[in-house]
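user: can you give me the structure for this one chain? tokens are fine.
assistant: on it. calling the predictor now.
[tool input]
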Amino acid sequence: MPGPIVLLTDFGESDPFVGVMKGVILSRHPKARIVDLTHQIPPQDVRMGAFHLMTAAPFFPKGAIFVCVVDPGVGSQRRILWARSAEHQFLAPDNGLLSWVERREPFLELREVRNQKLFLKPVSATFHGRDVFAPVAAALAKGLSPARLGPRTRTLRRLPYPEPRSTRERIRGVVLAVDRF
């Protein structure tokens, strides 16, 4: 049985965008299981999205498909990537969002998503979550071969990981997130 489709976005929950993405997924794959990881990433905060993805992914079942849409470059020429680790699949814009999860789950395969036959038409310049990510996730969950997404690639944009630094007197680090507790 395929794993769930796990959504991580910066869409918030006061607008219908998350619901619309789910509608597209369910229109293409009525039996899909969809899990909301979070939609409360601050707008366009790729680092926060990368952090939450890195810390949450190991707790999901094998085969989960993470659909990550924190995308300041929507409508631009940035690539959309699909990645596979030994445990999970990931869809995300090539903006660094995948760079930290790879520290915990090395990617075994990386592809550019170029097969426009999978996309909704017309593709909006501002809502790739609906028009590209959701239908591609549904197709993967139904068993589409990743080879049909597009060509393999070896590169992805990486965010520098803020490693803590220590001296004899102190440890310096960066606060990546503060939860509500």
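assistant: here you go. The helical segments are 17-28, 46-56, 101-104, 128-141. The chain is about 25% helix and 20% strand.
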